[in-house]
């Protein structure tokens, strides 16, 4: 009961809607002595998360003001202000939602609109799996939020009940890397926000973070708005956006600041590859990292050595290799590992958290693991493709198949790579699984049929991501179900400051819930997928595990193979800067690592003359190019001894040491010059 | 001896087992045991001329020390069991004061080194060495030698090949200031420390001619140098136009190593692309790429930041050159070298992590060599915080000395196990007055430390007398490895018949304390001031002449010869050659893709701004031609049927011209 009392004491801090159900819940629970201890531990973890998770509080506040549903106030007026979403909801009204056994009664609430979008749901008999523990508990969902978690919940009459039958109830997946609108030479990916998010939902992913990819010279802000507009119209699940920084200059800085402060973006991608296009030099990366750190953003890095790749591409094209195998040949694993190493070094110098997108090779993953062991704040993201398949397909005789695998960094040709990456993922050396979903049709890929450098880069994977992590890691016994939740959802939510709103089954979190069926099995095929691309790189691979039911924002969107996604239902989730998970250590290090000079007396000994020309006085770049010759200095230093360094001297055999020693300099001897 | 060798890695043990573990025992004068060793030695040294082409050419003028030369009384080589043709040696006295019979012979002295233990990188044995005309003519017991030769007594001491210092900067100016120690002072100090060959860096200013700079350096060195020297070239601005000069330098001038900088932004720094190109060219020409590995971009930014913070003293130097910046650059250099299949030599390995990167890369099979220097083996970077500005400034060099006090020990351990190969000094000394140019701004302090004189002693003291390496390893890291890498072996780096008479008699028992008061350099601060080192060169013979004896230096200015080095050193290039044969990439033969091709929209802003680099050899995509195969849907904007999956819409079931199996995806 002490637990409960603590909860009540917090009532004033909690949203109103939380107070009632929680207060009654534990009263009922008392009869189960054995279970209540676990329950209590769970409660104290979940109830007061509002208190310690600054991200949550912060991220809620702007939402309520703008386009998001107002949850904390329960004010119906606030809800109507969500302009884009409201419109699309009316486009697709009244989707059938019930095939499951259980009672479904619409609760005639005054604050609920009549479109049936929000419902009350009770998931019964499931095992709630979070990243830290698994418990048997029921989950009650209302208004798109998880309202209660526990046994014998007191719920209003007439809620829809979903029988989980002992299956896992996990937080919906978060796919941190999709490119659903990234244009390549003017062509858009085959999967746009609608297709892509539908595929995501079908795979158990209830949130995506898409990459905004402006071309060099374009405004980041405009690009962001274009993306947001497109996604608001089409996305079926919640989404957020990373913004790619294609170039670095002063105007970019202002836009970044605006994006972080006002738009809720806390992650920006920089490129070390794509020479003469997106690539930033080390100096620019240093500046960019410094700036992002000031803003409290996470630096995402596409890590490949663009200089060497450009050289290799030239070489390989000159050799007459134009097929997709040239892509793999021109981007060997070492270049990825090298760039990862460099990115980590830069990040560590600046003390900025670095997030490596698309870890494709063993050596890159090992580099990250070692850096983490040294204490660097770095995160690594393997993708669906690198966890499942390898680069042997680039040598496929079928051009279209080979081209379908083209992505950067390429899939490693080492067949043991997927296994290794899964192991590192299980051990926590890699943290997040993305999909890097960027599907182009074969005809689009065929733009590069005579030159592999023109093939649009990207593979599918948003739909298969969760299932393959289960199949390759959890079903193999490499990781447990909690770690599975961590790498597919929770870690991403923490790094990008969505936690605990996303990535956790807890009271107050968004009702993005997946009932996971570890026993189901399917064979991946382009024929069965939601994605619009006509080739699936995992074609024919059998995969255990899959979602049995997917709830997005409290609505059943996928059930027993039936997808009921609603176009435009996805909300933009703004993310506050300074995510704790990435920045806590950074902040402390900043304080600890402040540099201090040595206080010395002024050096007042002799100073060698330098040329009167400005080139040697300043380290400006122009000065450094001029050749030096052996002219004597134009001004003679009176302190200097009279010997000259040019040419042989008559007294060469005499040690000249004492010549430089000023025993009694004008102005008195100073102990600073005393070299004895 | 046997205990020490326990720590050796396995591949050496087979080599060592041939020697037996009894080398330190009193030598057997006449007997079967020694003969067998002697014979093994003979095989190694006698016919080396045949496998190292460069020595033949250079020796053409000199008498060939081969077995066929028996009638020549002065160039007798030892033949097992052959009876002495000369009646008796006349100088049989064996006191320590036996350097009496100083006979001025024609060109070089005739010398016999008696009673020492000859230490090469592969074995040690007791034998006398007879030197004539600047070359080693005989090795063995009871040598038959002419009368009137000077005898050098080496009883109880080691006879080792003279040190090879693979990195000195005795002539390279910084900010217009010449180093305090020029070729004369520098080589003089080198000789006093037991180093008989130096390899100096020719710093070619950006835009200057390589050949001109080379000639300038060679002239200066020939005029002043007291010991043999060779030259590396530092290429500060790479462009294709240098290829011609490189070829001349490598083929005609005897330079086979070129240094590139990854630091000194906007001054000497090379980009990754430039390095890639340059490494490719060097590999084709058979040279070794040397690298100054530090990330210049980061350093530049850090320097700005520190100066902005108001840190102007020498501690700013180390703060702006952190260890990981070195490590990163080493990693990058190794990657580029691997990619271009070019041998890489990392100069100045100053930190543990950089050394580790090299060690790991070697384990992966990459042809890379690492060179720790005197300073990094003997001291650490704590001195940058010295309250005394001149002392702190004296330590300024790039990469800087590491703050971690365990670095020297770690580097010596890697040196002992073969992960690092060569020790050098990176000697570049500037007087305090010169250093004081940067008294208000640490970025202006000329970089460089001393070490040319102390190098051999430091290695002996830190590695051999602590038991980390044996005397053979010592010879390897101070002399033989450098000679092998840069292709002057076995002329240098070995005590063998036919080799140059660069010999050091090493006294492992003696100690010396380093001090600026007693050293042979011009510079007023010695960074090793006050440190005591065991192991001292008691006699140094350079080019057959005794230059150090009884603590007295007797050098001749200008006596040093330029040692030209042939391209394609075997030690380095055997593997490279084999790999370039193996590493041919091949394409996949496929039918032409004849399926539908998406139209590229010809909007100029969406095309990469510099398309030449991305698709250099191929024409740009067919922007203007319409593809008739394409389906009619366009991706731009919203469509009415957005909610219908479009998968099938793009599939061409029966394209005009018939279906092709290449586009079939199922």
TrEMBL record, chain A:
<dbReference type="GO" id="GO:0016812">
    <property type="term" value="F:hydrolase activity, acting on carbon-nitrogen (but not peptide) bonds, in cyclic amides"/>
</dbReference>
<feature type="region of interest" description="Disordered">
    <location>
        <begin position="52"/>
        <end position="101"/>
    </location>
</feature>
<dbReference type="InterPro" id="IPR006680">
    <property type="entry name" value="Amidohydro-rel"/>
</dbReference>
<dbReference type="InterPro" id="IPR011778">
    <property type="entry name" value="Hydantoinase/dihydroPyrase"/>
</dbReference>
<comment type="similarity">
    <text>Belongs to the metallo-dependent hydrolases superfamily. Hydantoinase/dihydropyrimidinase family.</text>
</comment>
<dbReference type="InterPro" id="IPR011059">
    <property type="entry name" value="Metal-dep_hydrolase_composite"/>
</dbReference>
<feature type="region of interest" description="Disordered">
    <location>
        <begin position="614"/>
        <end position="637"/>
    </location>
</feature>
<dbReference type="InterPro" id="IPR050378">
    <property type="entry name" value="Metallo-dep_Hydrolases_sf"/>
</dbReference>
<dbReference type="GO" id="GO:0005829">
    <property type="term" value="C:cytosol"/>
</dbReference>
<keyword id="KW-0963">Cytoplasm</keyword>
<dbReference type="InterPro" id="IPR032466">
    <property type="entry name" value="Metal_Hydrolase"/>
</dbReference>
<feature type="compositionally biased region" description="Low complexity">
    <location>
        <begin position="618"/>
        <end position="629"/>
    </location>
</feature>
<feature type="domain" description="Amidohydrolase-related">
    <location>
        <begin position="168"/>
        <end position="557"/>
    </location>
</feature>
<dbReference type="Pfam" id="PF01979">
    <property type="entry name" value="Amidohydro_1"/>
</dbReference>
<protein>
    <submittedName>
        <fullName>Collapsin response mediator protein 1</fullName>
    </submittedName>
</protein>
UniProtKB/TrEMBL annotation, chain B:
<dbReference type="InterPro" id="IPR050378">
    <property type="entry name" value="Metallo-dep_Hydrolases_sf"/>
</dbReference>
<dbReference type="Pfam" id="PF01979">
    <property type="entry name" value="Amidohydro_1"/>
</dbReference>
<dbReference type="GO" id="GO:0016812">
    <property type="term" value="F:hydrolase activity, acting on carbon-nitrogen (but not peptide) bonds, in cyclic amides"/>
</dbReference>
<feature type="region of interest" description="Disordered">
    <location>
        <begin position="49"/>
        <end position="79"/>
    </location>
</feature>
<dbReference type="InterPro" id="IPR011059">
    <property type="entry name" value="Metal-dep_hydrolase_composite"/>
</dbReference>
<protein>
    <recommendedName>
        <fullName>Amidohydrolase-related domain-containing protein</fullName>
    </recommendedName>
</protein>
<comment type="similarity">
    <text>Belongs to the metallo-dependent hydrolases superfamily. Hydantoinase/dihydropyrimidinase family.</text>
</comment>
<dbReference type="InterPro" id="IPR032466">
    <property type="entry name" value="Metal_Hydrolase"/>
</dbReference>
<dbReference type="InterPro" id="IPR006680">
    <property type="entry name" value="Amidohydro-rel"/>
</dbReference>
<dbReference type="GO" id="GO:0005829">
    <property type="term" value="C:cytosol"/>
</dbReference>
<feature type="region of interest" description="Disordered">
    <location>
        <begin position="1"/>
        <end position="28"/>
    </location>
</feature>
<dbReference type="InterPro" id="IPR011778">
    <property type="entry name" value="Hydantoinase/dihydroPyrase"/>
</dbReference>
<feature type="domain" description="Amidohydrolase-related">
    <location>
        <begin position="159"/>
        <end position="546"/>
    </location>
</feature>
């Amino acid at each position: 009961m002490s637990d409960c009392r603590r909860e009540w004491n917090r009532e004033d801090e909690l949203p109103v809607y939380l107070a009632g159900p929680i207060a009654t819940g534990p009263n009922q629970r008392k009869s189960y002595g054995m279970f209540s201890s676990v329950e209590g531990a769970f409660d104290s973890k979940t109830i007061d998360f509002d208190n310690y998770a600054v991200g949550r509080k912060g991220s809620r506040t702007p939402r309520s003001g703008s386009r998001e549903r107002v949850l904390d106030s329960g004010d119906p007026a606030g809800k109507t202000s969500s302009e884009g979403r409201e419109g699309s909801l009316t486009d697709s009204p009244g989707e059938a939602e019930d095939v499951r056994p259980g009672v479904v009664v619409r609760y005639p609430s005054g604050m609920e609109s009549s479109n049936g979008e929000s419902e009350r749901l009770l998931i019964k008999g499931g095992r709630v799996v979070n990243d830290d523990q698994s418990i048997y508990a029921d989950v009650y969902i209302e208004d798109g939020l998880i309202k209660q978690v526990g046994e014998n919940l007191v719920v209003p009459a007439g809620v829809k009940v979903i029988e989980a039958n002992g299956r896992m109830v996990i937080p919906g997946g978060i796919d941190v890397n999709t490119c659903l609108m990234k244009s390549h030479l003017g062509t858009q990916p085959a999967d746009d926000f609608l297709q892509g998010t539908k595929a995501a939902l079908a795979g158990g992913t209830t949130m995506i973070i898409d990459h905004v990819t402006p071309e060099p010279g374009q405004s980041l802000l405009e690009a962001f708005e274009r993306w947001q507009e497109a996604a608001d119209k089409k996305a079926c699940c919640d989404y957020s956006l990373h913004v790619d920084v294609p170039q670095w200059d002063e105007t970019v800085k202002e836009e970044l600041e605006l994006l972080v402060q006002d738009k809720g973006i806390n992650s920006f991608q920089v490129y070390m590859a794509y020479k003469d296009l997106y690539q930033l030099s080390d100096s620019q990366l240093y500046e960019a990292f410094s700036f992002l750190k000031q803003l409290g953003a996470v630096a995402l890095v596409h890590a490949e050595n663009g200089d060497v790749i450009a050289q290799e591409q030239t070489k390989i094209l000159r050799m007459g290799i134009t097929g997709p195998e040239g892509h793999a040949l021109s981007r060997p694993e070492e270049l990825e590992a090298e760039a990862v190493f460099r990115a980590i070094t830069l990040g560590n110098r600046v003390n900025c958290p670095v997030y490596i997108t698309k870890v494709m090779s063993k050596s890159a993953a090992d580099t990250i693991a070692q850096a983490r062991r040294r204490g660097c704040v770095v995160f690594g993201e393997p993708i669906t493709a690198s966890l499942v398949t390898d680069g042997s397909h680039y040598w496929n005789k079928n051009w279209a198949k080979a081209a379908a695998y083209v992505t950067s960094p390429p899939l490693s040709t080492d067949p043991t790579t997927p296994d290794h990456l899964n192991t590192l993922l299980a051990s926590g050396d890699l943290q997040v699984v993305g999909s890097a979903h960027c599907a182009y049709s074969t005809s689009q890929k065929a733009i590069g049929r005579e030159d592999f450098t023109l093939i649009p880069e990207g593979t599918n994977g948003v739909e298969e991501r969760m299932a393959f992590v289960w199949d390759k890691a959890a079903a193999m016994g490499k990781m447990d179900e909690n770690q599975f939740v961590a790498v597919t959802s929770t870690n991403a939510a923490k790094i990008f400051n969505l936690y605990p709103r996303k990535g956790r089954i807890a009271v107050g979190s968004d009702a993005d819930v997946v009932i996971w069926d570890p026993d189901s099995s399917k064979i991946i095929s382009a024929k069965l997928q939601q994605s619009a691309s006509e080739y699936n790189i995992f074609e024919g691979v059998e995969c255990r595990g899959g979602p049995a039911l997917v709830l997005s924002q409290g609505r059943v969107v996928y059930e027993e193979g039936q997808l009921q996604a609603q176009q435009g239902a996805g909300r933009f989730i703004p993310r506050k800067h300074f995510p704790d998970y990435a920045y806590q250590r950074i902040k402390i290090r900043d304080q600890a690592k402040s540099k201090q000079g040595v206080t010395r007396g002024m050096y007042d000994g002799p100073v060698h003359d330098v040329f009167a020309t400005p080139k040697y006085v300043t380290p400006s770049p122009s000065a450094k190019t001029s050749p030096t010759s052996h002219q004597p200095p134009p001004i003679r230093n009176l302190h200097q001894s009279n010997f000259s360094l040019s040419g042989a001297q008559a007294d060469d055999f005499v040690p000249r040491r004492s010549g430089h020693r000023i025993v009694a300099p004008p102005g008195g001897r100073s102990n600073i010059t005393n070299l004895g | 001896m046997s205990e020490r060798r326990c720590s050796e890695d396995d591949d050496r043990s087979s080599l060592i087992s041939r020697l037996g573990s009894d080398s330190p025992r009193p030598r057997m004068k006449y007997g079967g045991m020694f003969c067998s060793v002697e014979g093994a030695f003979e095989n190694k040294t006698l016919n080396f001329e045949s496998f190292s082409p460069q020595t033949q050419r250079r020796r053409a003028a000199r008498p060939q020390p081969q077995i066929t030369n028996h009638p020549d009384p002065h160039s007798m080589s030892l033949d097992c069991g052959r009876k002495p043709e000369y009646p008796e040696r006349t100088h049989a006295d064996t006191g320590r004061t036996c350097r009496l019979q100083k006979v001025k012979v024609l060109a070089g002295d005739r010398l016999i080194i008696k009673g020492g233990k000859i230490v090469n990188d592969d074995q040690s044995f007791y034998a006398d060495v007879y030197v004539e005309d600047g070359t080693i003519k005989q090795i063995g017991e009871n040598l038959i030698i002419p009368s009137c030769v000077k005898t050098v007594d080496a009883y109880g001491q080691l006879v080792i090949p003279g040190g090879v210092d693979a990195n000195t900067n005795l002539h390279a100016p910084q900010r217009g200031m010449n180093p305090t120690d020029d070729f004369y002072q520098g080589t003089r100090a080198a000789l006093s420390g037991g180093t008989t060959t130096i390899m100096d860096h020719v710093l070619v200013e950006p835009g200057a001619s390589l050949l001109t700079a080379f000639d300038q350096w060679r002239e200066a060195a020939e005029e002043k140098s007291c010991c043999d020297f060779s030259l590396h070239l530092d290429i500060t601005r790479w462009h294709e136009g240098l290829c011609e000069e490189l070829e001349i330098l490598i083929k005609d001038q005897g330079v086979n190593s070129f240094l590139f900088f990854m630091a000194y932004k906007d001054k000497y720094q090379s980009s990754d692309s430039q390095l890639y190109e340059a490494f490719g060219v060097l590999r084709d020409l058979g040279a070794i790429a040397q690298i100054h590995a530090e990330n210049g971009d980061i350093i530049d930014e850090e320097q700005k930041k520190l100066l902005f913070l108001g840190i102007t003293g020498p501690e700013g130097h180390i703060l702006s050159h952190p260890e990981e910046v070195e490590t990163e650059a080493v990693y990058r250099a190794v990657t580029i070298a691997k990619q271009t299949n070019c041998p890489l030599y990392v100069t100045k390995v100053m930190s543990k992590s950089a050394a580790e990167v090299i060690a790991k890369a070697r384990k992966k099979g990459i042809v890379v060599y690492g060179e720790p220097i005197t300073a990094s083996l003997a001291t650490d970077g704590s001195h940058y915080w010295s309250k005394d500005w001149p002392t702190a400034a004296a330590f300024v060099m790039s990469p800087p000395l590491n703050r971690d006090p365990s670095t020297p020990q770690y580097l010596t351990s890697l040196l002992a196990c073969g992960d690092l190969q060569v020790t050098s000094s990176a000697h570049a000394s500037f007087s305090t007055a010169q250093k004081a140019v940067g008294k208000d701004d640490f970025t202006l302090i000329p970089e460089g430390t001393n070490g040319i004189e102390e190098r051999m002693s430091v290695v002996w003291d830190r590695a051999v007398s602590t038991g980390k390496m044996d005397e053979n390893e010592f010879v390897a890291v101070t002399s033989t490895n450098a000679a092998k890498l840069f292709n002057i072996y076995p002329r240098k780096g070995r005590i063998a018949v036919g080799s140059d008479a660069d010999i050091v008699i090493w006294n492992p028992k003696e100690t010396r304390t380093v001090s600026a008061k007693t050293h042979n350099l011009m510079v007023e601060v010695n960074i090793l001031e006050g440190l005591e080192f065991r192991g001292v060169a008691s006699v140094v013979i350079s080019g057959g002449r005794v230059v150090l004896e009884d603590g007295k230096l007797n050098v001749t200015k200008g006596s040093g010869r330029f040692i030209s080095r042939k391209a394609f050193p075997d030690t380095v290039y055997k593997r490279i050659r084999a790999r370039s044969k193996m590493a041919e990439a091949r394409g996949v033969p496929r039918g032409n893709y004849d399926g539908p091709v998406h139209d590229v929209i010809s909007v100029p802003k969406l095309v990469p701004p510099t398309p030449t680099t991305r698709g250099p050899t191929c024409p740009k995509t067919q922007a203007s031609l319409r593809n008739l195969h394409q389906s009619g849907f366009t991706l731009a904007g919203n469509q009415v049927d957005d909610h219908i999956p479009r998968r099938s819409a793009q599939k061409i079931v029966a394209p005009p011209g018939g279906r092709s199996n290449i586009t079939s995806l199922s």
